Amino acid sequence: MPTRRDWLRSSFLGGAAVLVGQRRLFAATAAPVVTVYKDPGCECCAKWVKHVAANGFVVTVRDVLNMDEIKRTMNVPSGLQSCHTAVVDRYVIEGHVPADLIKKMLAEKSPVLGLAVPGMVTGSPGMEGGKAEPYKIIAFERSGKTRVYASR
């Protein structure tokens, strides 16, 4: 016959296991948060925000007038700059980077500072319309070193 102490212990441990299980479930399903810095009037940035949100990210938009300061603060190399800059987890996302590649980078826990699609490439997310152009997604490090992460 279990004692009162045994009953309390099993009740507490059972409740704790449920709480731990719920925390794990919540952590596993929590969507990554992307904070996007963009010019208030940029339509392609707004389209990219919709692309990222449609792919499971929680998006916060910060309309700013001085994008040069944001890019400088985030250490985005000048040759990789585009119209908007975003932050997800510890990574910087510059320009029209596809959401699936952001997810891949997050899953890999890549040692890079971020990913960039330099310029305004037709056919990249948010820049649909017209004839799609091939483009490269560039990984960059704080040191300024870059490499091709993917091609589309």
Beta-strand proportion:
15-25%
Query: Which regions are unreliable across 5 or more consecutive residues at pLDDT < 50?
Result: 11-27
The quaternary state of the protein chains shown equals single chain
* Main beta sheet: 7 strands, mixed
- Percent of residues in helical segments? 25-40%
Arithmetic mean pLDDT: 87
Distance between the termini: 67 Å
* CATH architecture label name of the largest domain: 3-Layer(aba) Sandwich
Shape field:
globular
SSE pattern: HEHEHEEHEEE
CATH superfamily of the largest domain, called what?
Glutaredoxin
Overview of the structural elements:
The chain has helices spanning 4-29, 43-54, 67-73, 99-108, and strands at 33-38, 58-63, 85-88, 91-95, 114-117, 136-140, 146-151. The protein folds into two domains: 1-30; 32-151, Glutaredoxin (3-Layer(aba) Sandwich). 36% of the residues lie in helices and 24% in strands. A seven-stranded mixed beta sheet has the order 2-1-3-4-5-6-7, sandwiched between helices. The protein is α/β, with parallel strands linked by helices and 152 residues long.
List keywords for this structure.
152 residues; alpha/beta; Glutaredoxin; 4 helices
Write the layout of secondary structure elements.
Layout: H1 4-29, E1 33-38, H2 43-54, E2 58-63, H3 67-73, E3 85-88, E4 91-95, H4 99-108, E5 114-117, E6 136-140, E7 146-151
Short description:
The chain has 152 residues and is an alpha/beta fold.
